[in-house]
Amino acid sequence: MTQKSTNKKTLIIVESPAKASTIKKYLGSNYNVVASMGHLRDLPKSQLGIDIDNNFEPRYITIRGKGDLISKLKRDAKNSSKVLLAADPDREGEAISWHLASLLDIDNNSLCRITFNEITKTAVKNAITKPRTIDMDLVDSQQARRVLDRIVGYQISPLLWKKVKKGLSAGRVQSVVTKLIVDREREINAFNEEEYWTIDVKLANNKGKTPFIAKYYGLLGDKKANICNKAQATQIVDELKDAKYIATSVQKSEKLRSPAPPFTTSTLQQEASRKLGFTTKRTMLAAQQLYEGVTLKGVGSVGLITYMRTDSLRISTDAQKECRSYISTAYGNEYIPKTPRFYKTKKGAQDAHEAIRPTSMQFNPESIKDSLKPDLYKLYKLIWNRFLASQMSSAVLDTVRIDISANDKHALIATGSITKFDGFTAVYVEGKDIEEEKEGKIPSVSEGEQLSFKDIDSKQHFTQPPLRYTEASLVKAMEEYGIGRPSTYNPTITTITSRGYVAREGKSLYPTELGTIVTDLMADYFKNIVDVGFTADMEDKLDTVEDGNTKWVDIINEFYTPFKTTLSEAEEKIGNIEIADEESDIPCDKCGRMMVYKQGRFGKFLACPGYPECKNTKSLTPELNVPCPNCGSKVQVRKSKKGATYYTCEKGTDCFISWDEPTNDKCPDCGNILMKRRPFRGRGPIKLVCFNEDCKYELTPSKVKK
């Protein structure tokens, strides 16, 4: 499509209506901003969609239900003076832009691509002045991952259907992550607990004030004691009760405690899990909304955080200066370090984006709380506090360690600390998977001083097995092992739980019988697919495509040749494996058999065990007889923890989630679905509003049916 200079508007295409709404606010009437609603083309679902014999050429088709949107985008492009593709600044966004360019007949070598790390007026306007060509290295990197994942999933999964159970799936990343959870469970089951004892002695200085605890260490000059049974503990306690205690060494020091760096995708997901109890999916859904834009009272739509898929710790100089100025005003100059803080990004991380931070310090979480939904407020406050603390002064602690001898035979150690200057801890302290033991205050003690005995306490303990993975610790493990990338942590965990390979018990993740069986089968016949080292090495190779150092076809070819041989051998060797379905207490309303639980693509459902004679199925979730506003699938009715009703697409909340109830009625102004909006806390009338946020249509309350 040629782009002539006319009086027509410049068309900017982004992924979502929320992002479009935010960007529109920053631009004048010469721009038209529209949404592509994500990808418009993809590999076909019903077949492999890759020409193995022709250099693994992907065959892309239009996604079902996107035809009308594509026609509209083509009309918009034809009536525009210029088209700028503004999908997210990562390889997925680059691929969306590439597909759009193909559909709209835009030359890849034309200056049609713009990106911004934050959706602010300055960032958007700067991006428009610096359009570039589509980065084919990024596109090829996305294609390589897509093709590789498709080959693994679509060629191993049918084998699992045939040999184990219909509906099973394997995946390049999901299979190795499931194995991590299976292996951890086996470590826990194989663990043999061992008994040990600890002894705490309560002592006081010669003034007898502020008793403190000294922990038994062992015999003087020996390594730390291992007290294995009650008899040992009792003997030591008896000796310590009447002992003479001398402070042989008193070491005082000033210790600086530095703040944690600003968030990356991984650390945000971990901390949101620890502090807010959010799943990775819930975290990324809220972060996406904060990035794309939230309507603030009296301000309009504002992008509140920078791009949320990143493993970089870099912060822009302007953001750093603004943050230091805010700290000075809100907390005082003593809370600002003499030189700005810089954090080193780990080796191998992609540094294209900044760390996750607020886009502006003018939007304090408390000042905009009334404009944010609860999840958005909680996550924004977490991001705000973490970033603020990351640029603040270190906390200063006065620490003391006292080495104590008892009867010149036994060694004890007492440690304590007090906060001399709170520094960054006035704002934020990083959470831990295992809480650290807090140190108490130690009174003034002199070297050589005799201490008075107050009390003694011995406790029996048993060594504990490794903890089950939580979503937070699993994300941390994926990052440390190099499995996947920031954009894949959430979808991977969502996939293995929705497939029924992994289940939750509180925050903990554990493998199901199905997950264990499939993992063992994969380990026996597809060893590389579930090998951590192989998967991490493959991620590194795929990154070289993004860097422009390797052709994506070469990587796929190197993988596929041995994979094809392995697949053929597995087909011959794997016998049929039977897995019994769990029976429910619900009879089939067609034949009377007790229905069984089945795992489908979108979660569990009930099915008659009489298949194929009886094909009756039932959803476990109530559904509306209306289509999803985004994709046309079924809409499910769900309840929040507090009992409030909300609505989601059966494909998941990533597609659609709303407090408003979708209807079968269409908006007379724009043709979109109308939503039934109930009043907050039952105060006021029910309204029908358009699903399209840009359309202001609203049906009068008197005409709405309850």
Low-confidence stretches: 1-5
Q: Which of globular, elongated, flat, extended, rod-shaped describes the shape?
A: globular
Task: Give the overall average pLDDT.
Answer: 90
> What oligomeric state is this?
single chain
SS-based class: alpha+beta
Helix content: 25-40%
- Tell me the total number of β-strands: 29
Note the gap between the termini: 49 Å
- How are the strands of the largest sheet arranged? 8-9-14-13-10-15
Give an overview of the whole structure.
The chain is an alpha+beta fold and 706 residues long. The protein has 16 helices and 29 strands. The chain has a 6-stranded antiparallel β-barrel with strand order 8-9-14-13-10-15. Strands 18-19-20-21 form a 4-stranded antiparallel β-sheet, with no helix packed on it. A hairpin with a 3-residue loop joins β11 and β12. α3 (91-103) crosses α5, α5 runs parallel beside α16 and α9 crosses α11 (374-390). The longest helix is centred in the N-terminal third of the chain and has 28 residues, at 136-163. The protein is globular and about 90 Å long. Residues 1-5 have low confidence and may be disordered.
